Input
Amino acid sequence: MPGKRRVMLAACVGALALAWGPATVAQSSYPERPVRMVVAFAAGSASDQVGRAIADELSKQMGVAVTVDNIVGAGGNIGHTAAARANPDGYTLMLGTSLMAMAVHMQTPPTYDAVKDFATVARIGDIPLVAVASAAAPYKSWAELMAYAKANPGKVNYATSGKGTSSHVYTEMLKRELRFEAQDVGYKAVTQAVMDTASQKVDFFIANLPPTQGLITGGQLRAIAVGSAQRIAALPDVPTFAEVTGKPNLKLSLWYGVFAPAATPKPVLARLEREVMKAADSPNVKIKLAAAGGMVSAGTGADLERLVREDNQSFSTLIKQLGLDK
Output
């Protein structure tokens, strides 16, 4: 009997070693080579700036190079799809935003599932959108733009950085909520959309702050509303959408977080969660987010997963209601 018990104990220990051994090894040895972080938007965008700041911190913390790979196009869907289909070994990450749960619902058929095809690593923070118009435009505020749009039905247009992007979906939502007319004008490059807004080729643009900030500072663009809950330090004199519309719950902002392909080993995700949350709390990342008008609101992978699930459902419903999925 004692011999049999020893044999059974050895078998159990062996089974546990098989079950836990690879995970333990993966956790202790990861990372052993450079890590790639996919950013689905162009260099210089808010996503790119946040992604590079996080990548720099992760490189210092983990002792391997973490490089940014900008894979752009189709409102972010090309980059999102590439990241979803990458090898789930922890060596491909993605800097994701609310857009991954937004633009996918404009696809027929969709090339990825925002919930099922990704493992959530950690939430980083939030960046509001800003409405801008040419400084030479006849309207100097959001209220004046609305009055101008209602006095000139069919004549007002707005820039978008692509179908299904935040500039498109949020402006269409505002059109329904505030009952005004405006025609979308799509651009492949955000920089061109910004320049055409400044030169009055389009009437307004709801965009991230970074690509517009230089022209705001230079006096070619005027910021007329921001999508944050409170006014932001980067534009202290610009009112929020809640202020200018009288709708206290109206916010136009994007959350940012880090993702990995689904089936990435849990020990690797646990290591990455700790590292990303630490990186998000670094001065470098805080400065980058503040410069973009945002703020750090770090959270766990579980926190980010809840956001993705909620937004995936709400954006799916909103896009159908707006008729943008046709």
Notes: Residues 1-26 have pLDDT under 50 and may be disordered. The CA atoms of residues 56 and 66 lie 7 Å apart.
